Input
Amino acid sequence: MRIVIDLQGAQNDSRSRGIGRYSLAFAQALARQAGEHELWLALNGRFGDTIEPLRAAFDGLIPQERIRVFEVPGPTAEIDPANAWRARAAERIREAFVADLRPDIVHISSLFEGWGDDTVTSVGEFERAGVTSVTLYDLIPYLNQDMYLADDRVRKKWYFRKLQALKNADLFLAISESSRREAIEHLRLPADRVVNVSAGLDPSFRPVSLRPEERKELLRRYGLEEPFILYTCVYDRRKNVEGLIHAFSLLPEYLRARFRLALAGTIQEPYSRKLKQVAARLGLPAEKVIFTGFVPDEDLVLLCNLCYLFIFPSLHEGFGLPALEAMACGAAVIGSNTSSIPEVIGRADALFDPTKPQAIAEKMAQALTDEGFRQSLREHGLRQAKKFTWDACAKRALDAFRVVHAEEMRRKRSVFIDPPPRRRPRLAYVSPLPPARSGIADYSAELLPELAKYYDIEIVAPQREVSDPWIVANFPLRSPEWFVANAQRFERILYHLGNSEFHAQMLDLLRHHPGVVVLHDFYLSGLLNWLEVTGRDPQAFSHALYLSHGYAALAAEKAKGREQALWTYPSNLEVLERAWGVIVHSRHAVELARAWYGFDGERFRVIPQPVALPSVSRDAARARLGLGPDEFLVCSFGMLTPTKMPERILSAWLGSSLARDGRCCLVFVGEDPDRRFQEQVAQQVGESGMAGRVQVTGFAPPDRYKDWLAAADVAVQLRAMSRGETSRAILDCLAYGVPLIVNAHGSAAELTDGIAVKLDEDFRDGDLAAALERLWRDPAERARLSAAGRDHVRLHHAPGRVTKEYWEAIETWAEESVAARRRRLVLALADVDAPSGSREKDLAAAAVCVQANRPGPPLKQILVDVSVLSRHDAGTGIHRVTRAILLQLLARPPAGYRVEPVYGTGGLYRYARSYTLRLLGRAELQLADDPVEAGDGDVFLGLDLAHDAIINNVQTIMHWRNRGVKIVFIVHDLLPALRPDWFPPEVGVLHQRWLTIIASLSDALVCISRSVVEDLRRWLDSHHPVRHRPLALHWSWSGADIESSLPSAGLPADAEEALSKLRARPTFLMVGTVEPRKGYAQALNAF
Output
């Protein structure tokens, strides 16, 4: 299972209270117990200062890339009605973000949030993803509405919206049996979906011993003296603080004289003033009731160890964690006999009625005066606390997750079992059609009648005529221009995309109107090049080459030429990223996507091509072709290009016994684009005296093509340099029962064993000749292959079966793909009906968040900072090193990354595309220096020494790090910080600031020598930068191959004068900038 935990409960104002501590500890326990399951965290970017501490809290428990940050427009706090539109929009944006993570379980750590801060929680406001689980703490405001909701209509409305969200959930993890019973009884939640997972303890809550000076300092810090009674709380009427003060005042005078009452926790000033007035009115001196203020956990542990008695008089709790924490520290604990507190304390004689101050006072007095009773409470508490562990809590939760997930999987499996719904979604079908001389046109003519069972289809194509009468009669033909104006009328769009000019307009349509893509050719470089050279889209191929393959591909094209680049690079990344999903016809195409871009299989669906079994009349076909019944016909089908290896087929045939038998002939059925092969055939056949027995038909119209298929005895279909396509000719041969020989290359390697003769990918001509002879001499084997091929087509390629797979894929992606969900989200945001202070401004902010939350591409970025170098290359050593490393990174990007130089300007970073193109000698290309989009898995490499850029962009770098960008800086030296006297005064100050920033924000620092590492280590030890995770220190020497750094070349105009002086006498040469630390003055003094 993939379990996504919304951990905002550990980010917001609750993080220092019980809910925050519970949320964090529960999530950490789930991470420890997850086993084979994936645990992910979803964090709110509006609480930026909490993200790095949470990353640190899970460091080593889950991979950092599974901690994801979402952005929402703000403020959203619902205490202010002016935030209503943003709050509703944020709910939809957050749900879309979570759905993009493809969770099986979504667990919301704290649902009842967002009243006073920018926490955003909801269930089903946009759309559900997986099973939604919620931690159920309590229903205290619902059960005590007079206390919490009576005087605030706005808050009451907010709370009841959260109650509805709670009921919308699928699973409820109660923190106590008391909370479970309340939910079942008062909200009528299904009992089997409300699970008591209980709670656990932070291991820091344990008995500890303090040295006398530590004890004294702790008491001084909180204004306490021993002995004292402790209650940890915030001000809330149900916490019964006034009742406790009243009870304390009822203690006998000698006990009041001896003990103090310590109220530990943040109680805001108006409430603390009120409580002090209550105490004074009851005759308690100010020094008897102590308000400690906020107490961090590490001090709370010590106070629980020091207190004489811990009391928990709350009127209503969901669990009662403070009592458990105190027991774990060895404190004597007494508490209320209501809600969940009895199951936590686990001892009836330690309980009292919290509504009666006299009952509280009596139990307090017993515990304060009866040493045997107090000691037994301490011993019992230690035993009781051991029953509550977070790991046990997590195991119970995981068991509940497994049950509901299994039920959800059973439900999902049933979705596509039944026939499609009676209302067919309206689908735009974008494809060439007959009479276009395209295999995809013929493919569509076969698919459309079957697909119409599932969709109300209209065709989009630039052609004016369609020759297929079935299509003309049933499907309206729309122009691309009409489609652009009416695209919103369609619920689904299906693009059939290939690597030819027949698909010229599809790329732009897909760019603006995403849909499902059937990718017939993985490589689209030919189409893009055609668009560029014909002027229809200037630089179409160059831009696609950069977007898909980065600067290394642009440099390779310059070095090796356009033709080599067309063959080497698919250049199709934009298509794959914009598509809702991609249908391909072979696993080979999926492997190419994984190899080139790192895509997983979620974006792809391998669906066989639809092939109807023809009724074959061999004799009639042979008669139409003028073939005799005893002629042995070997055919190869398809356009005669080098990738089909027709020369190899001819060579093998001429070298076989078939060439010497006058009854055997070889026919290439297909077009020869440049007629080179036909000339080769004429020459070789003429020389061998076999004229008439080897021929090239040229383009074969459909009927003629089918005749050759029906007439053939054997077919040979070879492939080299696959472009990710699937051979329709191979399937046609199998459907017609033609015994088939292939080589195991590309999609042909996936053919089921036994349905064709499969040669090695790199076969020899002799292997092919031997296979031809074997089939020629063995009619029984030909008959077996014929039957096996047709059976294979019947089983796997039946049009009805294939179109059902189409429907399932299209509908799955329409529901679950990121692109389709984003389209629905935009529409949902437009429909938000709530007050907005500035609708235009709010919509713009929401759009920014939607874009920021988009899942990043599988190929991650290395963002190389060249802020100084890109503006002014001063030729210094640092710039030479920066330039050399940059060139190597551009030429050889690490696997899984693309390298992008960037520069800081105006409080943000931009891609340094113009500079990089000049550096690579490709200045003729035009690429904009757009703002950088960085996200999880990217790396920011501070390669250049850019003091100002880093200081001015601290917030940007912090934001990137929160979002999962790894921050790495190169440290060339610390000299301006260690020896400021060697530099202008401002340089030392800047360098100190720069060091402080990078030491705080970096994941790793890479020094140029071991010596610099040691200097840096000493600097860190003395300056103590604020950090939450360890800082990795590395070193790597700079290179010395000057020629690899694009060094300056040539001589200045006055070079001869200087050189003549050097030649005239023995000369000592010093190279480097003239500055004090270089020792020029010492050298002169030495002379």
